């Protein structure tokens, strides 16, 4: 790889790359080439190995970007998004996501938590945004995910949510129990 290969890495605007990403970026499918190149770049500290097949291009990589790459498909949701939106005040350093399976991981001292959610919800893109390489739920979708997975979920600041948006997203879950739980939280109900 000439210096243009490194330029492509930095120009991609991301901090985390899988072996597959590198293959596509460098337009090289040869696995021996990729193994050799990633080995050499890790020895030069240009790539930082995080997990098998996952690399960062700088030490201060984006942890939420890594959360999306550790378990595919997944999106950041639950208390992580609700805390960022000011809907809950409890501090929790774990990055919470939803995925096809329940799993916990730790990389560089940061905990990543994945909760299983049904495929019909996981693959529905309503209320999900991709920005700067991070797939994340909007606060209303995160609240519905949390309420769907935890019947005792609570909020500290219910004004942080757009309740009409919650109602608009509700049908994608097709769950009567969730509807009842949400109605208890609706203002004026």
Task: Give a verbal description of the structure.
- The structure is a single chain.
- With 189 residues, this protein is of the alpha+beta class.
- A 4-stranded mixed sheet has the order 4-5-7-6, with helices on both faces. Strands 1-3-2 form a 3-stranded antiparallel sheet. Strands 8-9 form a two-stranded antiparallel ribbon.
- The chain contains 9 helices and 9 strands.
- β8 and β9 form a beta hairpin.
- The longest helix has 13 residues.
- The chain folds into 2 domains: 54 residues; 119 residues, no CATH class.
- 30% of the residues are buried.
| Portion in helices | 40-55%
* Biggest β-sheet description: 4 strands, mixed
Q: What strand line-up does the widest sheet have?
A: 4-5-7-6
Ranges with pLDDT <50 over ≥5 residues? none
Distance linking N and C termini: 62 Å
**CA gyration radius, whole angstroms:** 19 Å
Give the structural class.
alpha+beta
How many individual helices?
9
Give the DSSP E fraction (strand runs of 2 or more residues).
15-25%
H/E topology pattern: HEHHEEHEHEEEHEEHHH
């Amino acid at each position: 790889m000439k210096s243009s290969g490194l330029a492509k890495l930095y120009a991609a605007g991301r901090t985390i790359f899988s072996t597959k990403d590198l293959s596509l970026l460098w337009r090289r499918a040869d696995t021996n080439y990729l193994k050799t190149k990633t080995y050499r770049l890790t020895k030069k500290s240009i790539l930082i190995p995080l997990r098998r097949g996952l690399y960062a291009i700088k030490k201060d990589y984006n942890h939420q970007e890594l959360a999306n790459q550790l378990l595919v498909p997944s999106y950041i949701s639950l208390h992580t998004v609700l805390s960022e939106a000011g809907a809950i005040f409890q501090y929790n350093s774990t990055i919470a996501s939803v995925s096809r399976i329940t799993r916990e991981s730790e990389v560089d001292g940061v905990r990543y938590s994945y909760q299983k959610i049904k495929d019909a919800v996981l693959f529905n893109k309503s209320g999900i945004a991709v920005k700067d390489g991070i797939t994340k739920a909007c606060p209303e979708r995160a609240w519905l995910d949390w309420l769907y997975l935890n019947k005792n979920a609570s909020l500290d600041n219910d004004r942080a949510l757009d309740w009409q948006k919650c109602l608009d997203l509700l049908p994608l879950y097709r769950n009567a129990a969730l509807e009842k739980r949400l109605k208890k939280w609706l203002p004026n109900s």
